[in-house]
């Protein structure tokens, strides 16, 4: 089991618990079965070898003995008879059958038997040479007999290997019968030698010595075999050896052995009459003894089979019984524990997630219904565990409900605090707007714009808190807004906005309902890019229409992230998890994911070619608006009246400097083509873009003859008399008649935040009681230009009017930076018209400042030019 046993299932552990006794019983059964089956297998193997190898080798030995006897006669008489040739044919057939059996059983035989088979095969290879010596007359009688004897010695060694009986008594009898067969071979050798010698009645000394050796071996083997054979098998042999024929045979043996010279004794002349019948009798006894031995082996085989059946049957029954009992016990216990496991998994994977989803949707949850009692069954211990787990499950569900209620309460507190903060920030932005309009000192104006910027960022953070709480910010627009203004407003809410470079964007409109969230989303991505990149590098914002919507890219040149971190962040953006109060380092990431999910926007982070990070935001077509949505605005854009306004429009085009880096970077401006009033108002698409050179370190707005020319506003044209409500006159020149910047003058009127400076501030307590600020859309039509009054009036510091100024409330960027207008702002106020001397002084100051700016920052402009055409 080892160290990993703790990870095993309960079924596996129960299986191991029951496996040990089962294995012990099985091993004992296998041991008994092996003993009995081993005997039966050995008996079957011995029987199979006898029926194949034994029969073939016995036939081979018989034919070799017959050919040897005839060869002795033929070598002596020098005559090759037809009978001798037929005998050779029978011997060849026996050799062929033996070799076939050898090829079939050699691979599966034991090493000892395989060695005996190989030796016999090798000896048979010399048979052809023996026959050639006989046929050519170059071999002696003793040499021929010796050659056949060597082959038969190998055959008899093979017989010894075939005696493999598992029963000891039968093995002893079989060994004795094998010795009797070897003694019969010695008699056959004596017979072959004497039959050849009877032809010429001569026996050489070498042949006499060989005969004496054969006789001695025969006597030894007979005596040993008789001592080992039992009464049933040895009785017939004893009768034969005590017969007169065998006595005459031994007398002739002794006479031949004791003879001298090369002549046969007289007693040898009756050799054939005595030896041949005796040999036939011994062959009959061998056959009878083999039959009796086979009967004994059969009885032994029957007993072995019975023992195998009993051992196998009893053992199998015991093993099966043990398996059945073990399986039933283990399955019962495992099922009881598996039921508890299923209940735990159901709680963890089904009930609690479903409960959490319901709690997120604000549904009421009944703990009794969600945590029913677990069925108690099985052993007492299992029932106790079931009751304990039921208590745990109920406690877990109650804790989840309590946690959800706590989270809901915390979210409500966050929303309430954020709404109150929004109300205060809204009033603060209105106050700052009025202060900016009254300020004349450039340094004070810069400080006010810096406070304005900080306030706008605070407002975005308040909206982020609302988003984290699951609610939606209050800002919304009914009419479409150009994407360029949305991007500008987002950049204006970033602290390090000067490092942000915006590439030319196409004329695309966004649906008003999604403008606030998309602005917040882009601001979060841009701020993240500025924070995590070196301060001397630029952050580039690009956008373009693609097949599936509008893509916005925010690219920085920071250190970037690794593939694993990108994958983790993209997964959180695609499926934002529930907000965790402990994960405070990823608040912006959570806000981006929540906003993207709300509008079906896909946000992906990837490595930038510069080593930093590129954030790609794909806006679906559902949040894009058709260009025809600006037709209402276009109806109010008419050609200004002839005279002074026409000359003014030609000398001072409706354009101003965009917020950007100081130093005269080229800035994008929007212009709207105007048609004569006689042709009527035509629907307009999103305005086109041009670029003008920066003049000073701060942006300026141009106000002429009571009409302010808004920088980069979608409606940057002067409306004719009576076209809309009166716009406020704003002082655009500071000390020395130099131009100064005007907040939100570059935005379209429908996006500007209406300042309610002239209205009395709300009671702070009233705002807190409401818990949130209520926003409404500005009454000015989308894209409408700020119109001139029909009868100019003189205002004080540009703030006199019935409903306050038309400046923006809560500009989040630098001085004059674009920002989307808060809904609920009003653009109605009185205007003031300047005298010709003031207008002339204003344009002179503007021209001088422009010339000075180009002289001072011409090189910087040339280095950072975007390639767009410069206005002259």
In brief, what are we looking at here?
It is an enzyme of class 2 (transferase). The chain contains 21 helices and 12 strands.
Please provide a written account of the structure:
Residues 657-684, 703-872 are annotated as: Disordered. Residues 675-684, 714-727, 755-765, 778-806 have a biased composition (Low complexity). It comes from Planobispora longispora. It is a single chain. With 872 residues, the protein is α+β, with helices and mostly antiparallel strands. It folds into three domains: 11-315, no CATH class; 380-472 and 652-675 and 686-872, no CATH class; 481-624, Heat Shock Protein 90, CATH 3.30.565. It has helices at 10-77, 82-105, 111-124, 127-136, 141-162, 168-200, 205-228, 231-241, 244-258, 271-360, 367-370, 380-438, 442-468, 483-492, 512-531, 563-574, 587-599, 631-634, 644-651, 764-770, 836-864, and strands at 481-482, 500-502, 509-510, 539-546, 549-555, 602-607, 613-620, 624-625, 667-671, 688-692, 702-704, 707-709. The strands form four sheets. A five-stranded mixed beta sheet has the order 2-4-5-7-6. Strands 1-3-8 form a three-stranded antiparallel beta sheet. The protein has a two-stranded antiparallel sheet with strand order 9-10. A hairpin with a 2-residue loop joins strand 4 (539-546) and strand 5 (549-555). Helix 1 (10-77) packs parallel to helix 6, helix 7 (205-228) runs antiparallel to helix 9 (244-258) and helix 8 (231-241) packs antiparallel against helix 10 (271-360). The chain is elongated.
């Amino acid at each position: 089991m080892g160290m990993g046993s703790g990870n095993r299932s309960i079924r596996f552990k129960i299986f191991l618990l029951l496996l040990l006794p089962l294995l012990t019983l099985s091993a004992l059964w296998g041991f008994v079965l092996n003993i009995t089956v081993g005997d039966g297998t050995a008996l079957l193997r011995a029987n199979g070898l006898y029926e194949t190898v034994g029969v073939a080798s016995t036939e081979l030995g018989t034919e070799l003995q017959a050919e040897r006897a005839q060869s002795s006669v033929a070598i002596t008489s020098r005559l090759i008879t037809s009978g001798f040739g037929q005998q050779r044919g029978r011997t060849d057939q026996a050799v062929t059958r033996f070799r076939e059996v050898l090829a079939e059983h050699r691979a599966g035989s034991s090493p000892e038997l395989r060695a005996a088979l190989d030796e016999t095969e090798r000896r048979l290879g010399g048979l052809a040479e023996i026959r050639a010596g006989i046929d050519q007359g170059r071999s002696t009688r003793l040499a021929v007999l010796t050659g056949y004897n060597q082959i038969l010695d190998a055959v008899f060694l093979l017989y010894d290997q075939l005696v493999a009986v598992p029963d000891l008594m039968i093995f002893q009898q079989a060994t004795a019968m094998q010795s009797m067969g070897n003694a019969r071979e010695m008699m056959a050798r004596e017979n072959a030698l004497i039959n050849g010698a009877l032809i010429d009645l001569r026996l050489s000394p070498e042949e006499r010595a060989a005969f004496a050796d054969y006789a001695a071996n025969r006597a030894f083997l007979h005596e040993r075999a008789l001592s080992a054979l039992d009464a049933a098998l040895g009785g017939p042999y004893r009768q034969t050896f005590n017969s007169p024929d065998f006595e005459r045979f031994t007398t002739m043996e002794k006479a031949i052995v004791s003879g001298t010279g090369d002549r046969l004794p007289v007693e040898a002349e009756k050799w054939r009459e005595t030896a041949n019948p005796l040999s036939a009798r011994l062959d009959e006894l061998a056959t009878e003894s083999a039959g009796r031995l086979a009967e004994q082996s059969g009885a032994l085989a029957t007993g072995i089979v019975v023992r195998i059946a009993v051992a196998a049957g009893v053992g199998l029954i015991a093993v099966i019984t043990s398996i059945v009992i073990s399986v039933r016990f283990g399955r019962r216990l495992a099922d009881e524990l598996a039921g508890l496991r299923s209940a735990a998994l159901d709680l963890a994977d089904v009930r609690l997630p479903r409960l959490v989803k319901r709690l997120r949707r604000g549904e009421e949850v009944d703990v009794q219904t969600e945590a029913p009692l677990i069925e108690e069954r099985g052993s007492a211990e299992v029932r106790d565990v079931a009751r304990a787990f039921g208590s745990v499950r109920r406690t877990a569900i109650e804790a989840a409900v309590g946690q959800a209620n706590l989270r809901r309460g915390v979210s409500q507190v966050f929303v309430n605090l954020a709404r109150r903060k929004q109300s205060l920030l809204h009033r603060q932005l209105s106050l700052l707007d009025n202060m900016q309009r009254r300020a004349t000192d450039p340094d004070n104006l810069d400080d006010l714009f810096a406070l304005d910027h900080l306030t706008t960022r605070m407002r975005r953070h308040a909206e982020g808190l609302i988003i984290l709480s699951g609610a939606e910010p209050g800002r919304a627009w009914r009419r479409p807004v150009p994407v360029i203004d949305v991007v500008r407003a987002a950049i204006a809410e970033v602290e390090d906005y000067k490092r942000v470079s915006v590439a030319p964007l196409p004329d695309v409109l966004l649906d008003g309902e999604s403008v606030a969230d998309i602005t917040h989303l882009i601001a979060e991505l841009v701020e993240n890019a500025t924070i995590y990149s070196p301060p001397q590098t630029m952050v580039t914002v690009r956008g373009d229409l693609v097949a599936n919507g509008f893509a916005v890219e925010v690219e920085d040149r920071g250190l970037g992230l690794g593939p694993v971190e990108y994958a983790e962040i993209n997964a959180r953006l695609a499926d934002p998890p529930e907000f965790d109060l402990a994960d405070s380092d990823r608040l912006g990431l959570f806000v981006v994911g929540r906003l993207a999910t709300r509008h079906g926007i896909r946000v992906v982070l990837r490595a930038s070619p510069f080593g930093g990070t590129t954030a790609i935001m794909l806006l679906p077509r559902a949040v894009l608006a058709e260009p025809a949505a600006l037709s209402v605005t276009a109806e109010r854009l008419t050609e200004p009246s002839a005279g002074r306004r026409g000359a003014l429009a030609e000398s001072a085009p409706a354009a101003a400097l965009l917020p950007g880096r100081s130093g005269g970077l080229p800035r994008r401006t929007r212009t709207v083509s105007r048609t004569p009033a006689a042709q009527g108002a035509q629907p307009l698409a999103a305005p086109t873009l041009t670029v003008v050179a920066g003049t000073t370190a701060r942006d300026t707005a141009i106000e002429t003859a009571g009409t302010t020319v808004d920088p980069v506003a979608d409606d940057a044209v002067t409306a004719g008399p009576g076209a809309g409500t009166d716009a406020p006159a704003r002082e655009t020149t500071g000390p020395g008649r130099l131009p100064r910047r005007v907040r939100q003058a570059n935005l379209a009127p429908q996006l500007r935040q209406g300042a309610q400076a002239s209205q009395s501030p709300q009671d702070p307590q009233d705002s807190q009681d409401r818990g949130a600020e209520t926003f409404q859309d500005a009454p000015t039509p989308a894209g409408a230009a700020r119109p001139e009054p029909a009868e100019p009036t003189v205002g004080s510091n540009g703030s006199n009017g019935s409903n306050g100024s038309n400046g923006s409330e809560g500009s989040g960027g630098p001085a004059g930076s674009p920002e989307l207008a808060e809904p609920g702002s009003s653009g109605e106020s009185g205007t003031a018209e300047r005298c010709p001397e003031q207008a002339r002084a204003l344009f002179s100051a503007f021209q001088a400042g422009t010339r000075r700016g180009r002289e001072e920052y011409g090189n910087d402009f040339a280095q950072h030019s975007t390639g767009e055409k410069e206005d002259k």
